[in-house]
Structure formats: structure tokens, C-alpha cells
Design a protein that fits this description.
It is a single chain. The protein has 410 residues and is an alpha+beta fold. The protein has two domains: 253 residues, 3-Layer(aba) Sandwich (Beta-lactamase), CATH 3.40.710.10; 129 residues, DD-peptidase/beta-lactamase superfamily (Beta-lactamase), CATH 3.40.710.10. It is 37% helix and 15% strand. It contains 14 helices and 13 strands. The strands form three sheets. An eight-stranded antiparallel β-sheet has the order 2-1-13-12-11-10-9-8, with helices on both faces. A three-stranded antiparallel β-sheet has the order 3-7-4. Strands 5-6 form a two-stranded antiparallel sheet. A hairpin with a 4-residue loop joins strand 10 and strand 11. Helix 2 packs antiparallel against helix 14. The longest helix has 20 residues. About 3% of the residues have low confidence.
């Protein structure tokens, strides 16, 4: 999974980093860096475009960079204003909405699923397994719930039943959660993240679909309404950030850098490569349906770490170690070079050579990867995106961090 892969990259270091001469401007060096990255990865990752935005100390707006084309093998240039999907970075803002509910006393951080959804623990068909009853809101947010991953379960079940994949289908939140519930009730829980709540850590998107259900039930809004209300202040300031868990409207599709991925419609068919830009994002919803450009990603991520949505300390207070799910009481040691930590939709790693504590998230969909990194010791925010799935973007982010760090410290 990408959250752990970036940690591995931090441990291995970056051996292709080069520093420009003092006469070479930082802007030129950053532009050349993403140009080289695109050249090196166009064929292996099937990407055609990379966006980069970086917010430096004392600067009010992110610096924006872009290379490549809007479509693969085309001559239509990509721009900094075009959009790409952010994938799991959405989780942070799902957590912001949950924290807002907690702060308004509509729910409690330690409330359990049986308290929040008593109707889903009846004896009727489709009810949730009894082992979920004592799972708390916090355990959903920091991935220690032990609830299995629907994104692995549903494709497996489709393959068994030889059901054709429909990328335009509209899924409901309940449908996604029930796939995980039925899997666990059938005593198949030997994989995909099943364990006693609070005993381990496992990256399960089902957690965030359930959080989406909590938002809808206790805010009395649809997810789209809740997200739009949260993002509207940024949109009014010209920030291109959106949440869509339904088919994209025309204006969005026209501004998308097209995303590409490998897929098959029938389980028995070989994978094929193609354009996945207009696939319905209801399959990820509150776990991954945000999109925008890298400038917007830098701006909203910066706001997240500066108390502009909810108190930042609330987003960090329930951090756990990814290796064992236990509380991270000493982050500089427990989130260091031998492990990583996960708070409320925020990944953390302590890397002294790269600026100390790093806060980051990598989001991926079938056709896109996006990442941001916040380095508080330098007051630097980095946001990058590409139009294909691939974990090498984490390496690019760390390269950019080291370039900027070299400039700031020299």
C-alpha cells in the first residue's frame, strides 16, 4: 500500500538526487526535476503529465509547475489549472467532517458502531457481524478497527461469480460496507484485514465508507452536501477542489488531465490499458472521491495543518504505529526509521535528514496518483499528481523536498 511504500522509500533514500548550481533558479530546478521524472516514467507507468505545487515560507500562493500533455500520446499541453483525482487524500477531509460532528456533540469519538447504528446489528439478513459492535469511531479513523477491505472483497466475489465489471455503476455506501460485513460473517476472515479491534493496524477503505455513513446519518446531509459545505470557502477563493461520488459533469471532464490504468471487464479476460477518467467514483466515495489541481491540494493541505478547518492537534492526537496499531506516545522514536505512524487520515514519519517529522498522504485511484507532504520544520508544503497509478511519485516528492531543503539551508 502506498502509505507504507513511501516509508520504505524514506528508509532507502534517494540516489538520483542532484543539486543545481547557485546560478540555476529554484523554479528551473523544480521544472527540470518533474520533466526528468516524466521522461523516465512515461513508458513504465504510462503517464503523460505531472503537476507540482509548492508553498514556501513567506509566500502567500503556491508556485505551480506542470509538464506533459492532457492525453497520452497527444500534443494538447497539460496546464496547472487542469484536474486530477486525489484518491485516499479524501480520507483526511472525511475525518475533518467527523471531528466537526464530535466538536458539535453530535457524536462521540469513543462511541461504538452498535451505539451509532443499532439497526445494523439485528438478526435480519444483511446485518453487520457482532464483532463490529464495539468498534469505535476513532478505530475507524486510525485504521485499527479490524474491519476487512471491501475493495479486495468485491472484485474477488465478482471473479468467483463471473460477474462483469461495470465502471459506471452507482454504488451506495451500504452496499460497499455490506460486502465486507457478509465476508466476515461467513467466517472467511483470514485475510483483508480482519482482527480484534485495537489489536493491530491495517489499511482498510471500509473504515472510511462507514465514516461516510456516520456523516450522512448524524449531519443529516448527503456526503456531497457535507463535502461541498466544507470546501466552499476554498472554492470561493478560486481554489479548484471538488468531491464527486456520482458521474462527472461536463465542466469537470473538460478540465481533467485524462487518467489511464490497467483493467478487465470480465474476470477471465487479460488486463488491458485504457482511459479511466470518467469512471464512477461512488466505489470509493468518502474513502477517495476528491479531485482538483495540485495548487488546490497544496492550499487545502496547508489549511489542514493551520487550524483552518478543525484544530490540527485533534487530527494528530490518536496516532498509532503502523507496525502494531499501538498508540504513538513518542512519535520521534516510534514513527522513525523503523516504522511509520497513522493518525486521523494523516501518515507520519520521522526522518531527521529530510527535515524531522514529515506529515504526508498518498492517494491513488485506477488512473491517478496524488501526494502531499508537509514539513513543519521548514514550513514547506509540497503537492504532486500524475495521471496513472504508481508508487514512484513518493520518490519524486522526497526529491523535491531535498532540493528545497538544500536551497533553504544553503
Amino acid at each position: 500500500m502506498f502509505i507504507r511504500l513511501i516509508l520504505i522509500i524514506i528508509l532507502l533514500g534517494i540516489n538520483f538526487l542532484t543539486y543545481a548550481s547557485p546560478s540555476d533558479s529554484l523554479n528551473n530546478q523544480l521544472q527540470n526535476t518533474i520533466q526528468s521524472y516524466l521522461k523516465d516514467n512515461t513508458k513504465s507507468l504510462h503517464i503523460s503529465a505531472v503537476q507540482l505545487s509548492i508553498l514556501l515560507p513567506g509566500e502567500a500562493k503556491p508556485r505551480g509547475f506542470v509538464v506533459g500533455t492532457k492525453y497520452y500520446n497527444s500534443f494538447v499541453p497539460a496546464t496547472t489549472n487542469m484536474f486530477m483525482q486525489w484518491g485516499s487524500i479524501t480520507k483526511e477531509y472525511t475525518d475533518v467532517l467527523i471531528v466537526k460532528l464530535i466538536n458539535s456533540k453530535k457524536i462521540n469519538a469513543e462511541e461504538t458502531l452498535v451505539q451509532l447504528f443499532p439497526e445494523n446489528f439485528s438478526n435480519s439478513i444483511g446485518s453487520w457481524p457482532s464483532v463490529w459492535k464495539q468498534v469505535t469511531v476513532v478505530q475507524l479513523m486510525n485504521m485499527t478497527s479490524g474491519i476487512p477491505e471491501y475493495q479486495q472483497i468485491i472484485p474477488n466475489e465478482m471473479a468467483k461469480k463471473k460477474i462483469q465489471f461495470d465502471p459506471y455503476r452507482q454504488y451506495s455506501l451500504a452496499e460497499l460496507v455490506n460486502a465486507a460485513a457478509n465476508y466476515q460473517k461467513q467466517n472467511n476472515c483470514d485475510q483483508f484485514g480482519c482482527f480484534r479491534a485495537g489489536s493491530h493496524w491495517y489499511y482498510s477503505n471500509t473504515n472510511y465508507i462507514i465514516l461516510g455513513m456516520i456523516i450522512e446519518k448524524y449531519s443529516h446531509q448527503s456526503l456531497s452536501q457535507a463535502f461541498n459545505k466544507l470546501l466552499q470557502p476554498f472554492q470561493k477563493e478560486g481554489c479548484d477542489v471538488f468531491y464527486y461520488d456520482k458521474p462527472y459533469p461536463k465542466f469537470l471532464l473538460e478540465k481533467m488531465i485524462h487518467g489511464y490504468g490497467f483493467y478487465s471487464m470480465n474476470p477471465s479476460d487479460p488486463l488491458r490499458w485504457g482511459d479511466v477518467t470518467d469512471w464512477n467514483m461512488s466505489f470509493v466515495a468518502s474513502a477517495g472521491a476528491m479531485l482538483g489541481n495540485s495548487s488546490a491540494l497544496a492550499k487545502v493541505s496547508y489549511a489542514l495543518y493551520h487550524d483552518q478547518m478543525v484544530p490540527t492537534k485533534q487530527m494528530l492526537q490518536y496516532a498509532v504505529q503502523m507496525t502494531n496499531g499501538q498508540p504513538a506516545t513518542n512519535p520521534s522514536k516510534q514513527c522513525g526509521e523503523d516504522t511509520g505512524c497513522y493518525a486521523l487520515g494523516i501518515a507520519m514519519a520521522y526522518a531527521p535528514e529530510d527535515g524531522g517529522m514529515l506529515y504526508y498522504y498518498v492517494g491513488s485511484t485506477e488512473g491517478y496518483t496524488a501526494e502531499y507532504m508537509w514539513i513543519p520544520s521548514e514550513q514547506v508544503m509540497i503537492a504532486v499528481a500524475q495521471n496513472a497509478k504508481g508508487n514512484s511519485l513518493a520518490r519524486l516528492t522526497l526529491t523535491i523536498n531535498r532540493i528545497v531543503r538544500h536551497r533553504l539551508l544553503s
